[in-house]
Amino acid sequence: MRKILALLIGSWLLATLCQAKSELFMLPYEQDKAFKSLHSSLKHAQKSIDIAIYSFTNRELAKALRDSAKRGVKIRIIFDESNKNDARSMIGYLEKYNNITTCLLKGEKSPNGNYYGIMHQKLAIIDKRLLYIGSANWSKNAFENSYETLFYDDDSYLVSKASRYYAEMFKLCRPF
């Protein structure tokens, strides 16, 4: 009986450990948890951070990226083209640090040729093992006042799919 009980407990523990870690934050109600999760993941990255972000004005998140870059973490950030002349954007602040590469991307040209789309993603891939994605821009307002979502998951399929998508966008962007 003890062997069966030990086997069941061991199986349960193994299943629990093997489950994907994920969380969905609903902003602004879970703003503190969401922000702390993202900030901590950026600050404790070990090798790489790939980001595609429409609007990035949050100084605390920018400082976490700066600190990770100073530790040798390779960081690539795709910004929407509109950030080129936005004084509030963190693109200029982050571009000056070693290990941080920033670039600009605009959306596809419309079929009638009259306008372009935008790069409206809000995603981060950390150490090729953790994906953050959602509706929230990386701004104080998005986390504190807006109705947004932020989701993270370490599922290898989702991380891999997002990484392939990111690689395609990165090929198309131009340096800041």
UniProtKB/TrEMBL annotation:
Catalysed conversion reaction: a 1,2-diacyl-sn-glycero-3-phosphocholine + H2O = a 1,2-diacyl-sn-glycero-3-phosphate + choline + H(+)
SUPFAM superfamilies: Phospholipase D/nuclease (SSF56024)
Recorded GO MF terms: phospholipase D activity; RNA endonuclease activity producing 5'-phosphomonoesters, hydrolytic mechanism
GO biological process: lipid catabolic process; phosphorus metabolic process
Primary enzyme class: hydrolase
Coiled-coil stretches noted in the UniProt entry, renumbered to this chain: none
EC number: 3.1.4.4
PLD phosphodiesterase domain span: 115-142
Cited CDD domains: PLDc_Nuc_like
Key words of the record: Hydrolase, Lipid degradation, Lipid metabolism
Key word Cell wall biogenesis/degradation present: no
Xref: Pfam families: PLDc_2
Superkingdom to which the source organism belongs: Bacteria
Gene3D superfamilies per the UniProt record, alphabetical: Endonuclease Chain A (3.30.870.10)
InterPro entries given in the database record: PLD-like_dom, PLD_domain, PLipase_D/transphosphatidylase
Record PANTHER family: CARDIOLIPIN HYDROLASE, MITOCHONDRIAL CARDIOLIPIN HYDROLASE
Family: Belongs to the phospholipase D family.
Name of the protein in its database record: phospholipase D
Organism listed in the record: Helicobacter canis NCTC 12740
